[in-house]
Amino acid sequence: MGNITLTMVKPTAVEKGYTGKILEKITAGGFRIQAMKMFRMSKADAEKFYEVHKERPFYGELTAFMSSGPIVAAVLEKENAVKDYRKLIGATNPKDAEEGTIRKLYATDIQANAVHGSDSDENAEIEASFFFSKRERFNKDGNII
Ligand code: GDP
Q: What is the Cα–Cα distance from 27 to 144, expressed in whole angstroms?
């Protein structure tokens, strides 16, 4: 199993001021932050990031939403990071998310569902490289990865 996942605090959650509370849940969940930045994606950036979803009916709406304001992107490190983070964030639709999960607590609806989390180790590496260079990622000793 890989040991990183890529998260974004999505625009609505950033705007509502939930970033700090979400980061607190993340660190309390045992994840270490390797890299982090606030960033506003262009429409083209969002289309590239979500390219795997381009055939889905909500692709246009989703990429417009994700480029509508700043997001906070972070690379999170933990053993079994992808699987454990998806458990911490809860189901895609906050209505189905378990109590205490990030999406249950901070999502607005299925699209503005508070946070992104990678769905595989392979995509975690691709998504981490989308936002961060190697020089922006740090190991636990504070050195460049
Ligand atoms: P995730 O891995 O849990 O984020 O879910 P998916 O990979 O299936 O979808 C990616 C993102 O698309 C979700 O996090 C939502 O922001 C959005 N999304 C998923 N399903 C829908 C939908 O039915 N309608 C809309 N508008 N957005 C959706």
A: 20
Q: Which domain holds residue 48?
A: 4-132
Backbone phi and psi for residue 71, each to the nearest 5 degrees, phi listed first: -120, 165
Ordered mean pLDDT values, 10 residues apiece, the chain (145 residues):
93 98 98 98 98 97 98 98 98 98 98 98 98 96 94
Residue with the smallest CA separation from ligand 1 atom 15 is: 111
DSSP-based three-state secondary structure for 103: helix
Q: In sequence order, what DSSP letters do the residues of 123-142 get, joined into one string? A: HHHHHHHHH--GGG-B-TTS
| β-pairing verdict for 32-39 and 4-9 | unpaired
Which residue puts its alpha carbon closest to atom 25 of ligand 1?
A: 111
Total domain count, the chain: 1
**92 Cβ below 6 A of ligand 1:** yes
Kindly state whether residue 109 falls inside one of the protein's structural domains. Answer: yes
Q: Does any ligand 1 atom lie closer than 6 A to the CB of residue 58? A: yes
pLDDT the model gives residue 2:
78
